[in-house]
Design a protein that fits this description.
Layout: E1 12-14, E2 17-19, E3 23-25, H1 35-43, E4 47-51, H2 66-84, E5 88-94, H3 100-109, E6 114-118, H4 125-131, E7 140-145, H5 148-162, E8 169-172, E9 178-179, H6 185-188, H7 194-212, E10 218-221, H8 227-235, E11 240-243, H9 245-248, H10 257-264, E12 271-275, E13 281-285, H11 288-294, H12 320-328, H13 352-377
Parallel strand pairs: 3-11, 4-5, 5-6, 6-7, 7-8, 8-10, 10-11
Antiparallel strand pairs: 1-2, 9-13, 12-13
Helix pairs in contact: 1-2, 2-3, 5-7, 8-13
Length: about 400
C-alpha cells in the first residue's frame, strides 16, 4: 500500500533532492538493512538506507578479500535496490570503517542519492571525493552527529576549507540503537533530550543557511517510535526523522526472523548497554551471548582484516562484526541484536507500509489534538497534516 498525496504536506528537501515523506530509515548493520528494507521504505516515499558496515560478510570470499567483498556487496545491494524502487536511496557509512573511503567512492560511482556519514568527524571527505575525480557528483553528503558542537565543527571546517557545507545533518540522540556517541552515564541517566539536541543543532546551522543562502535540514533520530514522537520532534525544528528500530520488525527487513523475534520477546529490562570491543557503548537486546560477555567471558577469534579502525583485535574479547552478522542470519546463540531504547514496544512483524501508515496516522492525531487545544486557547497553529 502506498501513501497518497498529502494535503499541505511539506516534503524533505535536501538541496534539489525531493523526498515525499520526511522519514529516513536508519542504516543498520551488519546485514540488517540491505536492498530489501531500503527499497521498501523508498517505495513508501521516504529515504531507504543500506548499511555498508561489514556488508562484505554477505559474500563467500569475505575471509580472504574482505575489503574487495565490501565494495562488491555494496555495489550489488545498491543496484538491486534500484531494480526494486524508483524512490530515494541512501547508504550509511561509518568513518570508523577502515575502508570508508573506498565505500564512499563506490556509493558515489553508483549515483546513490544520499550518503549518511557517522561514527567520526568527516572533515576530509570533500577532499577525498575530489581526489577520486568524483567532485561533479550529485550525491548528497550528510554527516551524523550527537551534538550541536560536532555539527558546528564539521560545517565550519567544510566552509573554511572547501567553500561549501554539508547538504543536511542528522542529529542522533541517546535513545538510539547500536554504537552511540555518548558516554555510558549519559545513556542510562542524565540523558540529553533529543528535542534539546535538535533545537541546539538548528540554532548552530542557521548562520550557515544564511551564509550560503540555502536550506539545510536537520534530521532527528534516536527514540522516535510513534507518530506523536515524530510530530513533537518536528515541532522542535527537525525537518525529518530518522527511524531504525520500528523497521526491524517488518517482513521486508533483511535480518533473520530470529533477530526480529528478539525484539518481540524483549521487555524494557532486556534493552541494555554494553561496552563494545571498539571502545564505544552500544545498546542491545540482552540474550545469553550478551550475558556471557557482560560476565567477562571471551569468544576467541581470528581477525584477517581489521574492519574497524578503533578495534584492538588482539585484545578484543570477541569480534563484534561476526557477532552482529551471526544474529542477522539467525544464529542468536553466537551474537546479539542492536536495538533502540524502545525496541521492546514491538508486538508483531508487519509490513513497511503498515509502519509508515501508523506513523502518519499518529502524527495526524497529534496534530489535530494540538490544533483543537490551540483553538480552545485562542492561539493559532500551523497545519501540517499527512494523508494516509
Amino acid at each position: 500500500m502506498k501513501i497518497n498525496k498529502a494535503i499541505n504536506m511539506q516534503p524533505l528537501n535536501i538541496g534539489d533532492l525531493r523526498v515525499k515523506l520526511p522519514i529516513v530509515q536508519g542504516g543498520m548493520g551488519v546485514a540488517v538493512s540491505l536492498s530489501g528494507l531500503a527499497s521498501a521504505v523508498a517505495n513508501q516515499g521516504g529515504i531507504g538506507v543500506i548499511s555498508a558496515a561489514a556488508i562484505g560478510m554477505t559474500e563467500p570470499d569475505y575471509m580472504k578479500k574482505f575489503h574487495e567483498a565490501n565494495k562488491r556487496a555494496l555495489r550489488r545491494e545498491i543496484r538491486k535496490a534500484r531494480e526494486l524502487t524508483n524512490g530515494v536511496l541512501g547508504v550509511n557509512i561509518m568513518m570508523a570503517l577502515t575502508d570508508h573511503e573506498e565505500l564512499i567512492k563506490v556509493a558515489i560511482e553508483e549515483k546513490i542519492d544520499v550518503i549518511f556519514i557517522g561514527a567520526g568527524l568527516p572533515l576530509k571527505i570533500p577532499h577525498l571525493v575530489a581526489q577520486a575525480g568524483l567532485d561533479g557528483h550529485n550525491t548528497k553528503l550528510v554527516p551524523k552527529v550527537s551534538s550541536a558542537k560536532a555539527a558546528k565543527l564539521i560545517f565550519r571546517y567544510w566552509a573554511n576549507k572547501y567553500g561549501f557545507v554539508p547538504d543536511a545533518v542528522v542529529v542522533e540522540g541517546p535513545m538510539a540503537g547500536g554504537h552511540l556517541g555518548f558516554k555510558k552515564e549519559n545513556l542510562e541517566e542524565n540523558r540529553i533530550p533529543l528535542r534539546t539536541l535538535v533545537e541546539e543543532t538548528v540554532e548552530v546551522i542557521r548562520p550557515f543557511e544564511e551564509e550560503y543562502s540555502k536550506s539545510i535540514p536537520v534530521i532527528a533520530g534516536g527514540g522516535v517510535h510513534t507518530g506523536k514522537d515524530m510530530y513533537d520532534i518536528m515541532q522542535a525544528g527537525a525537518k525529518a526523522v530518522k527511524i531504525g528500530t520500528r523497521f526491524v520488525t517488518t517482513h521486508e527487513c533483511d535480518a533473520s526472523v530470529e533477530y526480529k523475534e528478539s525484539y518481540l520477546e524483549a521487555t524494557s529490562e532486556d534493552i541494555t548497554i554494553i561496552e563494545s570491543p571498539v571502545g564505544l557503548p552500544g545498546r542491545v537486546v540482552k540474550n545469553n551471548f550478551v550475558e556471557q560477555i557482560m560476565a567477562g567471558e571471551t569468544k576467541p577469534f581470528k581477525c584477517p582484516w581489521k574492519c574497524l579502525s578503533a578495534c584492538n583485535f588482539r585484545e578484543a574479547p570477541y569480534c563484534i562484526a561476526k557477532a552482529l552478522y551471526n544474529s542477522a542470519i539467525g544464529n542468536m546463540d553466537e551474537g546479539f541484536a542492536f536495538a533502540g531504547a524502545n525496541a521492546y514496544l514491538a508486538t508483531e512483524i508487519n509490513h513497511v507500509s503498515d509502519v509508515v501508515k501508523d506513523l502518519l496516522e499518529g502524527y495526524n492525531r497529534e496534530s489535530r489534538s494540538r490544533q483543537l487545544s490551540a483553538l480552545r486557547s485562542g492561539k493559532t497553529h500551523t497545519k501540517r497534516i499527512f494523508a494516509v
